[in-house]
Amino acid sequence: MIAAFIRWSPTQKERAAGFRTTLHALLKIPYVIGADWFQYYDEPTHGRYDGENFNFGLVDIHDRPYEPLTTIASGLDLVGLKTAACTCASGRLARRAARSTKPAGTI
Question: Model-level pTM?
Answer without folding.
Answer: 0.64
